[in-house]
Amino acid sequence: MCYALPDSGHHPRLTVVGVGNPYRGDDAAGLLVVRELAAAGRCPLGTEIVEYPGEPTGLLSVWADAGAAWLVDAAIFDAPPGTVHRAVITEDTREDLDKLLPPGLRASSTHALGVADALRLASTLSQLPPRLVIYAIRAADLTTGAAISPPVAAAVREVVPLIESELREHARPNSPRA
User: Check: CATH 3.40.50.1450 for 13-171?
Assistant: First the structure.
């Protein structure tokens, strides 16, 4: 599902992608973040909000032509459940992609290939957006039919205002990008 807010035509396209499966417990975290962003209606005009439950290699077409993209996904990595890992990938940091991803990130996820695999592929093919901000939320339970766990629900509530703030900052002309 995609929610496109009206475009003001004054900035590069901003895309926020929530990756996940709504039926596998904490794997829904990315979807919940983008649903909350869309419901809040506080994103800059022209922001594209995408729920992406598909194969991670398809992300390359989702963020094609984006001036900047934010990606949110539940992941398994070396940290307690609910931990949020933020990474910023730009032209200058692409060579260090593996160093930017969460420590111990598993190569694959509940998808056939993992998001980390798709990021590596996109980097190799020079198909990453000029700026990509990744929010990986450490999952606790990816069981089919499980509810989202309390630590991951708290992380979703933490990430939504962070992305809202970054979108507003990025949409401002001549703003520094952190």
Answer: yes
